[in-house]
Structure formats: structure tokens, C-alpha cells
Write a structure and sequence with these properties.
Helices cover about 50% and strands about 10% of the residues. It is an alpha+beta fold and about 575 residues long. The longest helix is centred in the C-terminal third of the chain and has 27 residues.
Length: about 575
């Protein structure tokens, strides 16, 4: 049974979209709107637009858009009902029980509760006879009792069904454990614990929910580290370890490590902004997530070849998310955990203060590829360095880092400046050609981004968009729509949206875009937000409605071949009179 529409209207009315978005995006007011860097894709220049008077958001970079409910659905990767529940808690409202969907939401809640009970069992077993080896390992690694407790560390016994017996004894069935990723089944259909003979690291989201686990094996089994699979509550590309604690640290700087133990050791030493990705390379989603809480990232990966390669991949992702990036270069230790044990907390603090600007770090990595004693390789180094330096946004940065490269290679800053300028001009020419190709096809700019939503008739669709905007701005205009319905629209999407909003207006319900979140897909809402954010005034709304409808009906007649262009106005007026008479007769 769907949620009551008046409940949804009240929820939308109580949720100010600027306040909601400000919880995860730094917004700056410009005129009557707010702008920030998009939380859904990586960018440096803000293209994320929040329009308070229409209660919508729209990103001009990735195209995502909608109202408050869509925002929570996209940001938290939640279905409609769960997003409504999040907003309801935020607004101090209770979701009507008869409107609840018994499927997705109950499944999520059950998995979260199972994970919580599993974490308790693992933690209990760590201090029992079955966890002795794991506890000894963690203490050898120098972890204090406080750290073991604060991170909820545990142990999975070396048994095939310890957790299965624990949770089925609490009323969960084996299908539940499979859904949560806590158990696996073999080809014979028998199930067994996913985690066995492993030190367990609970993965906790920013709301404090246990969403998954990582486990380090105690013997020579592989893999050394095993993580939960993706489930309805956990996605390794959208979560990072220890962010639930790190987000509360002061200073706006996050320390990125490669693993659980590095992160935990840093927290124990007082560096509480440390996090780690979860058994996967850093992703754009990770960068966007971190940019919600921090302004600067320090990469503290291992100093081996794999760590250097991972840092090189992470730098552009973090920069695109809007973070200032530095890189920690450790001498005499392979990772932060080993460094702190060898040299102490103060030495690591000094190392953190001296962390290297990412441009110098990348120049140093380029230099390692060439022998600068050989003229040919020196030229190749300078050319590759010029490509990097030319990508920097400001002339001052290009001047400074071009000078660093010149000094490294033993050439004059002027010679390096010429090489950087040449690379920069090539970049500008390429960007200009791409823009010219876009400008030569202006009609294509009016089309929806999603190919399946393409407009068959641009002129009619633009008029249809205008009617939608007027309805969103003033539901009182619904009674002046001259009997037009969505069936007359050339765009099925716009026609559906018009019919839904017209019905809501007649029933005294909200006609804001957010009211359509349940009935329209994410791609459809993205495009409707694009329609909604465009300029429109309700002044002379009646005249505008008449003009829009004339275009829609006129284009329909031309498409059908019923009339030629010269007689279009007369034909439209005749059709309108016929439609009006028919509607009167139906009444």
C-alpha cells in the first residue's frame, strides 16, 4: 500500500532542501540560489545548484536532480520507502505503519540487526578460549584494551558453523545469513560461515550501523584479508573504514591508509582522522564521500611499488572531488603502523606536517622513469613533466612547478615555460574543438541526457515543459489549462508528469517536483529537475498557458498532416472549441 500523499506533502514541507543538502555539501549562496561541488560525481568547480523556492537540486555536470526524497535516495543508495523514513526521522515525524513496504526496508533492518548481533558475538569470542590466538595477535600488534573496545574488534572461531548456530539460535534463518553475506553455500547447497579463524574488524557507517566486516586470517589460508560482499546495506566502493569516527575529527584533514591496522594504529596514536578503503582501490565515490567531511587529504600508503601506484591513481580522484591532496613519504618504515612503532607519535606528526604537495610527488615519480644523465631521456622527462604542469589550473602553479621540473633536469625556467605553454595551447585547442562540436548542434542541447527520453518534437516539448513549470510554481493555474491532457503531449514523460501534477493540483496537494519521487525513475527525475530549474514566471500565466497550448496542439496537427502551416491558427482555435464542447458535454 503506498504512503498517504498528504503525509508525503507534510514531510516535503518540513524538509528545507538547502538545510538537507548542507549536511553533506558545502554550499555558497549566489543570488537566490545555492551552489556547491556535486556529491554524486567528482568536480573542482561547483556545478551543483540548489533552488530553495522550488525545493529542487540540479547538477549541471552529471545531470542528477530532483527533490529532497530523491537526494536521500541517491546519496545513501536507498529505495524510496527507506529515504522517506530517513527524512521522517530527521523531521520528527512517524511514518504511517500502513504505508510501509514489507520488502526492502524490513530486509535492510533485519540485515543491520544481524550484523550488530554478529559483531557482538565476534567481540565476545575474542575474549574466550576460541579467540586466544586472535587476542594474542592484536596485543602483539600493540593495540590497547581501549582500542579493541572502541573499534569493536572480534574473532571468528575456526569452526564451520559457529556464527550460523549463534544467529539461528536468535531466530534468524540460514537464508537471512546468506543475504547478509555472513554465510556462503557450496555447490551441494550446504552453507557455512564466511569468516572462520579470523580477527574481525566491524565496518561501521556514518550513522553507527554495522554494515559489514573485514577479517584477517590467523594461518596461511588465502585471502589474507576477507571482506563482506556487497549486500543491501554495504557497498565497498561507497564506504570507508573508520569514517564514523574520523568525520568528527578537527582540522579538516583526512589521512588515507591502505588497511585496517594502519588506520587503527593511527587512531590509537591520536591521529583520529585516519581512514582506509575496504579491500578495493580508491574510487570516485570514495573521493566524493570524503569531500563531504574534509578539505584536505594526505595519502599515507605503503612505500612499495603497489603503494606508489595506488597513490598515483588516488591523486586525480581526490582532486576531482575538490580535496587538496598531499602525499606522505616515509623513510625507514613500510607503512604508518610500522613507522609509529619504530619512531613514535611525534615523529609521525612531523612527517605529516612535511607531507609533500601532490604535484612535486608526481614529478618525482615521473623523474624515476628516466635517467637524467642521458640527454634524450632528459628531454622525455621534461616533455612528460610539461604535460602534468600544463594541467594545473593557475598560471602561478604552472610557474612554480615548471620551475621545480626545470631545476631537476638542469634547464632554464624559461625553456621549461616554453614547453609548458606549448602543452597548454594544445590542451586549449582540443577543448575548443570539443566545444565547437557541441555548439554546432544546439538542438541536441535541448534533448534529455537519457537517450530513452528523447524528444520527437523539440518545439512542442519546450511548450510542454513550460506548462509543467507553471503547474509546479502555481497549482492554482491547473483550472486554466484549456482542457489539455498529457495524452496530447509529444513527450510521454512530460505528459505523465503533467497528468500527475494536474491531478494533485485538483485535489489540493503539493505540485512540487519532490511529490513525483515515488512514481518516476531516477533518470526521469533528473530530467524533470532540468525542466523545473529553468526560468519561468507566473506573471501573465494565463497568456503563457494559452500560447504554450497553441504550440502543442498546432504541432500535433502538423505532425498528423491534418492541416498546413498557413491555416494553423484557425485550426487550433477550432480544435480548442471542439475540445471545450466535448468536456462540457461530459460534465
Amino acid at each position: 500500500m503506498p504512503l498517504p500523499e498528504r503525509f508525503l506533502d507534510e514531510l516535503i514541507a518540513r524538509t528545507d532542501i538547502v538545510d538537507l543538502v548542507s549536511e553533506s555539501v558545502r554550499l555558497t549562496k549566489k543570488g537566490n540560489s545555492w551552489w556547491g561541488c556535486c556529491p554524486f560525481h567528482s568536480e573542482k568547480t561547483p556545478s551543483f545548484h540548489v533552488v530553495p523556492d522550488r525545493q529542487i537540486y540540479k547538477c549541471f555536470g552529471c545531470g542528477k536532480g530532483g527533490g529532497a526524497i530523491n537526494y536521500v535516495m541517491e546519496l545513501e543508495n536507498l529505495p524510496f520507502q527507506d529515504a522517506v523514513a530517513v527524512l521522517a526521522r530527521r523531521a520528527g515525524m512517524e511514518v504511517p505503519s500502513f504505508g510501509a513496504s514489507p520488502g526492502a526496508r524490513e530486509r535492510r533492518e533485519k540485515i543491520l540487526e544481524m550484523n550488530r548481533q554478529a559483531a557482538r558475538a565476534f567481540h565476545r569470542w575474542l575474549y574466550g578460549s576460541e579467540g586466544a590466538e586472535g587476542l594474542a595477535y592484536l596485543r602483539r600488534r600493540g593495540l590497547s584494551q581501549t582500542t579493541l573496545t572502541s573499534f569493536g574488534l572480534g574473532f571468528a572461531p575456526s569452526q564451520w558453523d559457529a556464527l550460523i548456530r549463534e544467529l539461528t539460535g536468535q531466530g534468524y534463518d540460514k537464508r537471512d545469513l546468506l543475504d547478509a553475506g555472513l554465510a556462503v553455500n557450496n555447490k551441494d547447497g550446504r552453507i557455512y560461515d564466511r569468516f572462520r579463524n579470523r580477527v574481525m574488524f566491524p565496518i561501521i557507517d556514518v550513522r553507527g550501523n554495522v554494515i559489514g566486516f573485514g577479517g584477517r586470517v590467523m594461518d596461511d589460508s588465502t585471502p589474507k584479508y576477507l571482506n563482506s560482499p556487497d549486500t543491501p546495506v554495504y557497498n565497498k566502493s561507497r564506504n570507508v573504514f573508520a569514517l564514523n569516527t574520523a568525520k568528527n575529527s578537527k582540522g579538516g584533514q583526512v589521512i588515507l591508509t591502505e588497511g585496517y591496522m594502519d588506520t587503527i594504529s593511527l587512531h590509537q596514536a591520536g591521529f583520529t582522522s585516519a581512514v582506509a578503503s575496504l579491500g578495493t582501490a580508491l574510487t570516485e565515490e570514495h573521493g566524493q564521500l570524503l569531500a563531504r567531511y574534509f578539505k584536505e587529504a594526505v595519502i599515507a600508503y605503503d612505500g612499495d611499488g603497489a603503494g606508489v601506484a595506488a597513490a598515483q591513481r588516488a591523486i586525480p580522484l581526490l582532486e576531482k572531488a575538490g580535496l587538496k591532496v598531499k602525499v606522505l613519504r616515509m623513510q625507514g618504515a613500510k607503512d604508518p603502523d610500522e613507522f609509529i612503532k619504530a619512531y613514535g607519535r611525534e615523529a609521525f606528526a612531523r612527517l605529516l606536517e612535511q607531507s609533500e604537495n601532490q604535484v612535486d610527488y608526481r614529478l618525482a615519480q615521473i623523474q624515476k622513469k628516466y635517467s637524467l644523465a642521458d640527454d634524450g631521456q632528459r628531454i622525455a622527462f621534461l616533455q612528460e613533466a610539461a604535460q602534468l604542469v600544463s594541467s594545473l589550473p593557475s598560471a602561478v602553479e604552472r610557474e612554480i612547478y615548471g620551475g621545480h621540473a626545470a631545476q631537476t633536469a638542469g634547464v632554464t625556467p624559461e625553456a621549461m615555460r616554453l614547453e609548458v605553454d606549448r602543452a597548454l595551447k594544445a590542451r586549449v585547442r582540443k577543448a575548443k574543438r570539443q566545444q565547437q562540436r557541441r555548439d554546432l548542434a544546439p538542438a541536441s542541447q535541448l534533448q534529455p541526457r537519457a537517450r530513452e527520453l528523447r524528444y520527437e518534437n523539440i518545439r512542442s516539448a519546450l511548450a510542454e515543459e513550460g506548462l509543467l513549470r507553471l503547474l509546479m510554481l502555481d497549482p492554482g493555474l491547473a483550472g486554466r489549462m484549456e482542457g489539455i491532457t498529457g495524452e496530447e503531449f509529444s513527450s510521454p514523460l512530460l505528459g505523465r508528469a503533467f497528468d500527475r501534477l494536474s491531478r494533485r493540483a485538483r485535489e489540493g496537494l503539493s505540485t512540487q517536483l519532490a511529490a513525483l519521487a515515488e512514481e518516476f525513475s531516477a533518470e526521469e527525475m533528473d530530467h524533470l529537475a532540468q525542466v523545473a530549474q529553468q526560468p519561468q514566471t507566473v506573471a501573465n500565466g494565463g497568456r503563457a498557458i494559452h500560447d504554450y497550448i497553441s504550440v502543442i496542439r498546432g504541432e500535433a496537427l502538423l505532425r498528423s498532416g491534418e492541416i498546413q502551416g498557413d491555416d494553423l491558427l484557425l485550426a487550433v482555435q477550432k480544435k480548442y472549441q471542439q475540445k471545450k464542447a466535448y468536456m462540457e458535454e461530459k460534465k
